[in-house]
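User: Just a sanity check before I run the rest of the batch. Below are the structure tokens for the first item. I only need the designed sequence back.
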């Protein structure tokens, strides 16, 4: 099993990891009529089929609004370019939809780094923290979890990586909550800092 930063398969979360976080989740819950402090997707999926379909359409529309505001996180374009140049394979696993993810990646000019079939949203696999999306990406790549990294900004990302057997990297400018730390292999403040750590960890050529 390779050390985390020398692995060759990299799976990224989108919002708050590759982008600057802009989502106002309390406002989203109010617009959707969802109680506070509950998981939006989990709550929608407990509704009847017709109501869940209506709420998913409404959520998709809100997420497209946020996609139009997307900004690249510090060092993100450089990180993706460096990994791809080094021969790493890149995938994206988001609780958003594949369509919204594609919109964001195109807006930020980094869509070329991700094959369409390596973009997994909540309709391609059960959403994080379940590990299904990671497992399906590994199957698509015919890759091993021991050669894979899950990178994200939320506990959902860390738990999905742990459950799938990958390394986990947290992107967060502040200290993580104490109960997150057992699930973190590496912690960086930004994609730019992760790039610096990856460059330092690469074996000499």
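Assistant: Here's the designed sequence for the first item:
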């Amino acid at each position: 099993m390779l050390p985390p930063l020398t692995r060759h398969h990299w799976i990224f979360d989108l919002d708050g990891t590759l982008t600057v976080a802009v989502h106002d989740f309390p406002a989203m819950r109010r617009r959707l009529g969802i109680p506070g402090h509950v998981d939006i997707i989990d709550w929608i999926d407990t509704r009847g089929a017709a109501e869940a379909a209506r709420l998913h359409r409404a959520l998709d529309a809100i997420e497209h609004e946020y996609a139009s505001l997307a900004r690249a996180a510090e060092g993100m374009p450089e990180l993706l370019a460096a990994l791809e140049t080094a021969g790493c394979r890149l995938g994206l696993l988001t609780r958003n939809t594949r369509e919204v993810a594609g919109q964001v990646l195109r807006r930020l000019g980094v869509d070329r780094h991700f094959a369409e079939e390596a973009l997994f949203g909540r309709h391609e696999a059960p959403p994080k923290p379940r590990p299904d999306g990671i497992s399906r990406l590994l199957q698509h790549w015919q890759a091993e979890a021991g050669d894979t990294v899950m990178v994200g900004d939320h506990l959902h990302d860390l738990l999905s990586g742990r459950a799938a057997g990958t390394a986990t990297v947290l992107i967060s400018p502040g200290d993580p909550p104490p109960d997150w730390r057992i699930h973190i292999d590496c912690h960086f403040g930004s994609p730019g800092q992760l790039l610096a750590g990856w460059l330092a960890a690469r074996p000499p050529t």
